[in-house]
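Quiz preparation item.
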């Protein structure tokens, strides 16, 4: 939290009365700080730590009796990543999907039809969600305020399990265009690792160059 507020490792070390190398080991996950070391930071960030963050998602379930039922999901923790894919481009004038439109308007709007969302639940555990846009394509531009996603939980995983799931490409297995699928898979592999590192989690096979 301090790093996200633009504190330097040196400033954190001074506040915690320790060495910058120790703070670096906390950030990389090589060591864990004691509560007594974090007294100054807890004075500043304690209220934010006690305030639980969460997001509400929903899904529509069709039971055997055939009547749709709304299912709500409450997922706590910070959103580590929201990755849109299977994007489609729409014309802002005629609101049809490109390249079907014949308008000369250059302004287009890109709309994602799928998303992968990752919540950090704490203690090295993550909740991975899969989202699919509910509206048909002809309504994508006409009703943006109701352009909502149906959400399902893929599972709760640790760091290694989440990376294995991302690397497997299972989340994009229904993509028709294999080239597009591979490109999106590589992009998600990169972005999830970048997010983990930026939030202080450890990632294997990272070449590091440390400041003196």
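Solution:
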């Amino acid at each position: 939290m301090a790093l996200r507020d633009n504190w330097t490792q040196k400033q954190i070390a001074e506040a915690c009365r320790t060495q910058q190398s120790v703070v670096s080991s906390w950030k990389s996950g090589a060591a864990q700080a004691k509560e007594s070391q974090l007294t100054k930071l807890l004075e500043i960030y304690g209220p934010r730590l006690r305030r639980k963050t969460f997001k509400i998602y929903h899904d529509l379930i069709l039971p055997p009796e055939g009547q749709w039922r709304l299912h709500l999901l409450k997922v706590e923790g910070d959103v580590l990543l929201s990755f849109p894919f299977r994007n489609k481009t729409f014309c802002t004038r005629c609101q049809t999907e490109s390249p079907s439109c014949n308008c000369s308007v250059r302004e287009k709007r890109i709309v994602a039809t799928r998303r992968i969302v990752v919540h950090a639940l704490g203690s090295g555990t993550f909740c991975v969600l899969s989202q699919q846009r509910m509206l048909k394509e002809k309504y994508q531009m006409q009703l943006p305020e109701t352009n909502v996603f149906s959400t399902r939980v893929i599972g709760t995983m640790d760091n290694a399990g989440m990376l294995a799931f991302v690397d497997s490409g299972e989340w994009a297995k229904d993509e028709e265009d294999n080239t597009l699928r591979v490109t999106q898979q590589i992009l998600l592999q990169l972005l999830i690792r970048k997010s983990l590192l930026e939030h202080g989690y450890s990632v294997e096979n990272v070449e590091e160059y440390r400041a003196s």
